[in-house]
Amino acid sequence: MGTFGTGPFSSDGALDFLDELAERPLQQRAEALRHMLGYVLANRDLLWREYFPDQVVAAAALVATTLPGGEHLQHRLMQVSDESSAVILPEPAPDLATSALEALHFVAGPGGPWHQGWTTEIDQAEARQTIDGLTAILQAAAHS
Fold it and tell me: Which of 90, 121, 131, 142 is 20 to 30 A from 59, comparing alpha carbons?
């Protein structure tokens, strides 16, 4: 049984995604994120087969770590794995904010698949807080 938590980097799927990204050279990571987010948006019907909501949330959170307001996410990213320091992006990625926000809304908008399956009210509230926080950071960057 895998780990699945309410934070953006709190699941096995999110950590696997981060590990895959960490294997790429630093200069290729933003492009890999751009490709992944574009793939999600162009292939919404492949959710649950080719990608999962926790991976999309982790990708959006990784974009948010580079933006104003995302500093706490950088700290969380550093906590999740010894290897996670290698997952950082080389520079801010505000150009990815719009696609990250759109992909996040797809998987974690009201009633979206990210919100399905939380078994307690506390987990439901924490999951909503995670998405609300990411949305606020990404919206600020997308609208500036």
Answer: 121
